[in-house]
Amino acid sequence: MRKLDTKTIVVASHNAGKIREIEDLIGPFGFSAKSAAELKFEEPDETGTTFEENATIKALASAKASGLPALSDDSGLVVDALDGAPGVYTANWAEKEDGTRDFAMAMEKVEKALADKGVTDAKDRAARFVSVLCLAWPDGHTELFRGEVEGTVVWPPRGSQGFGYDPVFQPEGYETTFGEMSAEEKHGWKPGDAAALSHRARAFKLFVETCLKV
């Protein structure tokens, strides 16, 4: 376990929604952060088959390119009835032929895949969001933190908050989707609070407890 002893880090991502969420989480701790997108780093090929492997690839690439610690996130939607898909390929399901991403299309793909399997009952639409954060240093040292939140895939999509598949994910115990929640409601956590709702907030809470607290 290595403590983070600098307030300057790189957010190893080119995903605007993900960058915004991570900045919202690290901001209260006084971090100065720039994203891999701002620094015009190339996106590394995510060749891993697990969230941990892909998070490590991204964090190490930014840490080595910048000479600073880098924090990455690899996350995805895991649907039980689809044998864990889209999983680590969550972003790939949104890719269009021109290289851009269309998450409305991706959500429709998930719904079609469920329909093709004959899944209609809510009890058979169990899913979870998974987030793995990786903090990497330029010397190659890494720390990994995994967060998960259980829920259900709903249809049609509801809400315009958040990003990605948020409008079709209803967390367990709630009547609203992530797409209907404000950032504060979705994270369910701020410094000093014990609870954390979103998968990313839960992973971040572990990061704080491991790398920030003395």
From TrEMBL:
InterPro entries assigned: dITP/XTP_pyrophosphatase, ITPase-like_fam, RdgB/HAM1
Residues that bind Mg(2+): 45, 74
Cofactors demanded by this protein: Mg(2+)
Record: active site: 74
Enzyme Commission no: 3.6.1.66
Residues noted as binding substrate in the record, renumbered to the chain: 13-18, 75, 163-166, 186, 199-200
GO terms, molecular function: dITP diphosphatase activity; ITP diphosphatase activity; metal ion binding; nucleotide binding; ribonucleoside triphosphate phosphatase activity; XTP diphosphatase activity
The protein's enzyme class: hydrolase
One example of a Gene Ontology biological process annotation: purine nucleoside triphosphate catabolic process
Cellular compartments per GO CC: cytosol
Keyword Hydrolase: yes
Record note on cofactor: Binds 1 Mg(2+) ion per subunit.
Keywords from the UniProt entry: Hydrolase, Magnesium, Metal-binding, Nucleotide metabolism, Nucleotide-binding
Swiss-Prot/TrEMBL catalytic activity: XTP + H2O = XMP + diphosphate + H(+); dITP + H2O = dIMP + diphosphate + H(+); ITP + H2O = IMP + diphosphate + H(+)
UniProt superkingdom: Bacteria
CDD domains in the cross-refs: HAM1
UniProt subunit comment: Homodimer.
NCBIfam families per the UniProt record, alphabetical: RdgB/HAM1 family non-canonical purine NTP pyrophosphatase
Family matches, as PANTHER family: INOSINE TRIPHOSPHATE PYROPHOSPHATASE (PTHR11067:SF9), INOSINE TRIPHOSPHATE PYROPHOSPHATASE/HAM1 PROTEIN (PTHR11067)
Task performed by this protein: Pyrophosphatase that catalyzes the hydrolysis of nucleoside triphosphates to their monophosphate derivatives, with a high preference for the non-canonical purine nucleotides XTP (xanthosine triphosphate), dITP (deoxyinosine triphosphate) and ITP. Seems to function as a house-cleaning enzyme that removes non-canonical purine nucleotides from the nucleotide pool, thus preventing their incorporation into DNA/RNA and avoiding chromosomal lesions.
Family: Belongs to the HAM1 NTPase family.
Name the UniProt record assigns to this protein: dITP/XTP pyrophosphatase
Origin species: Shinella kummerowiae
